[in-house]
Amino acid sequence: MKMLETRWGKFIIEVVALAVIFTLVQYFITAGIFNQYHQITLTSMCINIILAVSLNLINGFTGQLSLGHAGFMAVGAYVSVVLTKFMGMPFIVGIIAGCLGAALAGFVIGVPTLRLKGDYLAIATLGFGEIIRVILQNIDYVGGPAGVVGIPKLTSWGWLFAGVVVTIFVIQNLINSSYGRAIISVREDEIASEVMGVNTTNYKVLAFVVGAFFAGFAGVLYAHYFYIIKPETFNFLKSFDVLVMVVLGGLGSTTGAVIAAVFVTLLTAVLQAFPAVRMIIYALILILIMIYRPQGLMGNKELSVKILGRIWSGKDGSFEDK
Amino acid sequence: MALLKINNLCKSFGGLSAVLNFNMEIRENELIGLIGPNGAGKTTVFNLITGVYKPDEGEIIFKGENIGGLPPYAICKKGIARTFQNIRLFNNLTVLENVKIALHKDVPYSLPAAVVRFGSFYKGEAKIEEEALKWLSLFNLDYKKDEIASNLPYGEQRRLEIARALATHPTLLILDEPAAGMNPNETLELMELIRRLRDEFGLSILLIEHDMSLVMGVCERIYVLDYGQVIAEGKPEEIRNNKRVIEAYLGEEV
Question: Which residue range(s) make up the domain with A91?
Fold first, then answer.
């Protein structure tokens, strides 16, 4: 058992666990146990996880209220579609270009807007997200308001899984490092952080760029699964959907963001059966959760094997925040 | 040579001059006090030195270089650290993490190394951890390293803030009312600590304080500020007997 506690031991356990999950789901898909409907839900779930975890880096860890996530998703989707559909490039080129394009958009938008704070930043990013959408609406090359139809379906379970794993891996490693502590210190107290030698502007932009990068990734995966993209798909309501997941999961908790993304996706899927009252039930559930857990499902805690073990043995069953 | 030399520093907020033609000189290893009635502009002087505000006029020469108008993180890297009048810790983080953030400016591994987890990351983290613990143990806070900072008692929060400031390896330490809210016993301990820090780390220390026993007991020279201007400067005994000071600030003899 001792070997499992070491860095390499943990690494091996993680790899094995991931391989098992991947193979299992892949088997369900190939064997036809997951039907078309299940697969669509699975795809939305993975895309939502990527979106929520990446927005959580900006909103939860850095404390910068951004409402432009759908805009970055749109950049990733459109850039990749231009490359794969119009230019016939391989999917991997589309993915890399889509992510980098979104990251660049994050940089261009982040540098001027991150001087603003709180509500002002929220409104500025909301505006920028809409600007991206309106620009896309006016480019005839990508179909204007009608969007692009007939995108090759290149997003497989393998790509979705890789997307989720890479997003969580990169963001968690970033957060659990000295750079991550600098990012969190910006949220905690910007002036103190700056006086302690942290160039707060740089770290805000860094978080913004990394967040946008992965939003772009989500956009690429979305476009190459659902066959059609149009600017309207990426309006501010999409940004709010992601924000809901982040707040629901708990600002500053990656596991919270993942759980909330899974929860919201499943809830939406289940409620499809009741179209008349769907939005009412959805809203009610969100309101109830926010009343009884205003800090979000996870607060700013992370769920780890260690904590699960402690709950199991009954030593520390409480997640209560002070 | 003076470590810090401030010439004709001015700062006004919408027509109200908070600091007017302020001059000050701090030599190496000196312990200086800055006193004055409420609203005299003491904290503004601190905010100007540490870059939180930009000066309207005048220069702040630190180690022979004008640092006036630089951003706070740049000034921190030049070797000036401070604490705040109303404690500004990273409240939701642990005691240890608070100090680790102060060590970030000399982070020993690159961003890609952190993301991909190269060996240099683990080595660097171990080094950061070791140094952070060293600072905590110096302030007897190591046994509370995993506590959330906002859960510490007041006195320990003050001490943590000083530990965090020192972890940035300053040559000039600026303390804004370090004894505020402390009882006489704690103040006495703090005086001891301030002297020890100066001697052990070869620091220059500049402090604002309302507690006269602390200022008079520990400082070698004192500047008295009133309405943004220096009205007296000198050794504690000179300040004690200075007529203008008594008039402007003390009101009665100390």
Answer: 35-236
